[in-house]
């Protein structure tokens, strides 16, 4: 089992920056892939970014490329999502997930946090 806990959400204005954190514990060695997803009201949960602790590979959704960056500390098992130039359409609950396959497919992630709300006002 792997436990993940997100933090860092909040209310910001358009154009602001925010950094989300995700702490993982448990059998983390069995799930070396970390991902960020988000879900806005009435919409499906969508992929934002992923990173592999195995080789450092990263992937970002086209909608956030150039604005959001996934990075982390493998030793501390802490994941981050740096979000810059936030837009009102970035408003959503942001989830951290852990899995064993590097993918943008949410169904391939086994462990999920409770989510943290990000609200961007115009």
**Mean pLDDT over the full residue set:** 96
Could you state the order of secondary-structure elements as H and E? EEEEEEEEEEE
How many individual helices? 0
Radius of gyration: 13 Å
- Indicate the low-confidence ranges by residue numbers: none
> Rough shape?
globular
Strand pairing plus helix content: what structural class? Answer: mainly beta
Helix content: under 10%
Distance between the termini: 40 Å
Percent in strands = over 45%
Number of strands: 11
Largest sheet: 7 strands, mixed
Structure write-up:
This protein has 122 residues and is mainly β. The protein is 0% helix and 54% strand. The chain is globular.
Briefly, what is this?
The chain has 122 residues and is mostly beta strands. It has strands at 2-7, 10-13, 18-26, 33-39, 46-52, 58-60, 68-73, 78-83, 92-99, 109-112, 116-121.
List its traits.
122 residues, mainly beta, seven-stranded mixed beta sheet, four-stranded antiparallel beta sheet, 0% helix, 54% strand, globular
Secondary structure layout plus pairing:
Blueprint: E1 2-7, E2 10-13, E3 18-26, E4 33-39, E5 46-52, E6 58-60, E7 68-73, E8 78-83, E9 92-99, E10 109-112, E11 116-121
Parallel strand pairs: 2-11
Antiparallel strand pairs: 1-3, 3-8, 4-5, 4-9, 5-6, 7-8, 9-10, 9-11
